[in-house]
Amino acid sequence: MKTSEIRKRYLDFFKSKNHDVLESASLIPQNDPSLLLIGAGMAPFKDYFTGKLKRENPRVSTCQKCIRTGDIDNVGKTARHHTFFEMLGNFSFGDYFKEDAIKWAWEFLTENLGLNPENLWVSVYEEDQEAYDLWRDLIKIPEEKIVRLGKKDNFWEVGVGPCGPCSEIYVDQGEKFGCGKADCKPGCDCDRFLEVWNLVFTQFDKDEEGNYHPLASKNIDTGMGLERIAAVMQGVDNNFEIDIIFPIIQRMEEITGKKYGEKEEVDVSLKVIADHIRAVVFMVADGVLPGNEGRGYVLRRLLRRAVRHGLLLGLKEMFMYKLVDVVIQLMEDQYPELKTKRDYIVKVVTLEEEKFAQTLEQGMQLLEYELAKLTKGQVFPGDIAFKLYDTYGFPLDLTKEVIGEKGFELDEEGYKIELEAQRRRAREARGEVEAMGTQEVITLEDLEKSNFIGYTNISNKDKIA
Ligand code: ATP
Ligand code: MG
Ligand code: MG
Ligand code: MG
User: Fold this and answer.
1) pTM of this prediction?
2) What are the pocket residues of ligand 1 if the criterion is a CB atom closer than 6 Å to any ligand atom?
3) How many structural domains compose the chain?
């Protein structure tokens, strides 16, 4: 079953349960300064969960674009993590609660998608007997397949405000994917029990002192990773082999002459590139430009990290810009704006890749030269990390990652001292204007200078530099 079919079936299913199906919100949070990027389906609806905003129909369903940079180190190492992914979700703002959420999730997976109930496991929060009973008595899941997990895994809360227990649904992919430990079950870090869907029951309001008060109107917030359920439905080993991602890897095979599926480290690089180009394309389409701070930094870091993986694959020429069209072809049906913004996206990616490509190799040489001087227990000098950032355009996290791979740590203090000194110098030189560094944001001017042809297609929103 194609990923687009699953997406459609999900939204149609919840439409049939009287949900309003809404478009994905932008990756850039609107009216929410506490968030850098949207990382879950519920994020655009926070005000509805708290009751601050109300809508006529309290049931909503979406397929939301998400970025989770917190998962960056997992990409390519686990079968299931991306930095960019789509989350299917159904939400109830003070309307239906646990029973319907559980019943419908089960109905969708087993009847609509036709998954074998025998392969499904669930987890509940250890103190949530209500959810446990529903799974056991209403759904009739054998007790040995209902796992109780603690707060870390099965209680959702961010600071103060609405929060509550959750219940997750897992697909047992078989021993082949497992760690082989006798006590391997949902919650284990390995890929055997694939968490596909999280049902969050926001039923408490947490106050400043850490007390939980029952909410007058209880909410449902669910999230299912589209790529994960697609991997299950398509019977592939990992998310990167599904129909909307694998063609990117195939294009990289053509560009590099390397083969997927032969060597672990090659696969990791191919997966990282396939993941990051998707994130880059969607972020740029939503109006993010590469920079040294905030969202711009996230974008820059992802793009440059992918470029470095290109170098690891032996590429000396630019390649990221060539992948933009592949991503657009795979995603344009659901996100037609990608097509209209195509020229703009290619231009931004090309410029950023160009900037880094000029310095990457030299930077890597310097990095490796410095690494070779270190002996076990020594830290990597902060001033060199600063030089890599300032002169060679290495995002700090990239430097840390490379030295981490060799088992070393960075002298972060030394780095900060250099960064501060440079900021001071720049302030002095330019009066009170904040330092910009040598590798700052790509501006509208840069785009103009480079024979940019895509303006006709960009809205004013995208023209911010
Ligand atoms: P995991 O434990 O596998 O890291 P999670 O518990 O952090 O997942 P949730 O916050 O519960 O994930 O998000 C809801 C759903 O979104 C998950 O059940 C999963 O299907 C999907 N999901 C979460 N993180 C990612 C990711 N980095 N890449 C792809 N899908 C994801
Ligand atoms: Mg996670
Ligand atoms: Mg989890
Ligand atoms: Mg979860």
Assistant:
1) 0.90
2) 68, 71, 80-82, 85, 87, 195-198, 223-225, 227-228
3) 2
